[in-house]
Amino acid sequence: MAVPDVIPIAYVPRHHTETIGRYADGQFLATITYAFPLGFQLDEGWEEHKRLYVVLHTFDADGRYRDSDIWCGGTWAEQQRDPDGADSVLGRARIHLAKLLRSLPRRAYTNIAVRPFQLTVDDVLFGMVIREDEGETWAELYPDRLEFGEPWDGRYVA
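RE: above sequence
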């Protein structure tokens, strides 16, 4: 089965897709995720290269990509130096995500369906990218690395 033009994403509370849904102007997909730059090879000092991002992608009602708000909250190394509290990298990211979500009028958390898109920020790939390997084709959300495939019901493999 081929990848559909519009890829369904299921809303699942307390999991990777808990901050997706619809708002007054269309659909949104938000996440907090760690990512490495494209082509990065793990070696000593990797903790300074692993960055935490707050991401808000918006789409029209038909799933066409509109825009992204992508903010880097800091590195894994910074988070390890100060792991708790509102001033930690993760704490700041959670506050920033809440602010972005509050900015969406008439926000409702629910299933969405989006068309493939991609962009690169800070040498990090973001988007819903069509992938193929050994005759299999799927859609993958970057940098979260959530895979969507048959039966195209919105469920993902992390």
